[in-house]
């Protein structure tokens, strides 16, 4: 029984992202039908022996699958593939962002969503929307000015743009991602010199204010350009960090 349970897994390569590697392997088994709806997953010990990873990695991978709605657990019985393993809702959880490549994929997704949202916001924003956006922008400026990263304030400002589309689905989609959409843990701001951080903060402030000004002025093309420019520069920075890490 143990051999049959173990056989459904390939050995996970010993990479820095063991948890995501195991989670991806499990997801592939579910999607391929090798692990069928309602089927019990192998025990933690069996997975450990088949993959060569630690118990902690196994438990973290299973937690990821539970968060995605792919498996359920039953007290004293173990983990089972969900009867409807297709995720009911899409989400990005912080544990998904285990590499700069994953961050780049999130930024690519954000550009697709927020580029359109910025244009709609420029066409549809109300005075209340603009006041809300200005308050969020001021809070972000204050947080960064006080030496913080401003991740929550950054998220709130970008979310206020989505709200200004007057399409509630934009805001609801952003809410499923949470601050994972602003992955500051990979930005390595703490490794910057004081001068570099000051320059980075000034650039971010300029880009955010350009987005707001275009939306405030009702300039749809400019709002789209400003938003794409902002996220594209963030993408370029993360690409540089990734390339630098590969050459260490």
Topology:
Blueprint: H1 2-6, H2 18-32, H3 44-51, H4 55-67, E1 71-74, E2 78-81, H5 100-124, H6 127-145, H7 151-163, H8 168-177, H9 194-216, H10 220-246
Helix pairs in contact: 2-4, 5-7, 5-9, 5-10, 6-7, 6-9, 7-8, 9-10
Task: Describe the structure in your own words.
A two-stranded antiparallel ribbon has the order 1-2. The protein is mainly α. Helix 6 (127-145) packs antiparallel against helix 9 and helix 9 (194-216) packs antiparallel against helix 10. Helix content is 64%, strand content 3%. It is globular, with a radius of gyration of 22 Å. Strand 1 (71-74) and strand 2 (78-81) form a beta hairpin.
Quick structural overview:
The protein has 248 residues and is mainly alpha-helical. It contains 10 helices and 2 strands, in the order ααααββαααααα.
Q: How many strand elements?
A: 2
Q: Which percent band covers the strand fraction?
A: under 5%
Poorly predicted parts: 1-7
Q: Mean pLDDT, nearest integer?
A: 82
SSE string: HHHHEEHHHHHH
Q: Please bin the fraction of helical residues.
A: 55-70%
Strand order of the largest sheet: 1-2
Secondary structural class: mainly alpha
- Termini separation comes to 45 Å
Count of DSSP H/I helices = 10
> Biggest β-sheet: count, sense, barrel?
2 strands, antiparallel
Shape from CA axes?
globular
Radius of gyration (Å): 22 Å
């Amino acid at each position: 029984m143990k051999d049959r349970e173990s056989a459904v897994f390939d050995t996970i390569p010993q990479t820095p992202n063991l948890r995501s590697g195991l989670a991806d392997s499990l997801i592939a088994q579910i999607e391929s039908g090798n692990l069928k709806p309602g089927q019990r997953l192998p025990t933690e010990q069996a997975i450990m022996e088949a993959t060569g990873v630690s118990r902690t990695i196994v438990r973290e991978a299973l937690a990821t699958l539970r968060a995605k709605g792919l498996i359920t657990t039953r007290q004293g019985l173990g983990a089972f593939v969900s009867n409807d393993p297709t995720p009911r809702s899409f989400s990005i959880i912080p544990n998904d962002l285990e590499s700069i490549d994953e961050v780049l994929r999130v930024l690519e997704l954000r550009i697709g969503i927020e580029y359109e949202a910025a244009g709609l916001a420029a066409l549809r924003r109300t005075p209340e929307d603009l006041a809300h956006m200005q308050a969020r922008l001021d809070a972000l400026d204050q947080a960064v000015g006080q030496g913080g990263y401003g991740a929550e304030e950054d998220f709130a400002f970008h979310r206020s743009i989505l709200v200004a589309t007057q399409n509630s689905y934009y805001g609801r989609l952003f809410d499923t991602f949470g601050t994972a959409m602003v992955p500051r843990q990979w930005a390595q701001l703490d490794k910057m010199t004081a001068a570099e951080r000051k320059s980075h903060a000034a650039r971010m402030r300029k880009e955010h204010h350009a987005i707001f000004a275009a939306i405030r002025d009702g300039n749809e093309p400019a709002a789209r350009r400003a938003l794409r420019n902002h996220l594209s520069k963030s993408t370029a920075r993360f690409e540089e960090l990734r390339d630098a890490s590969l050459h260490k």
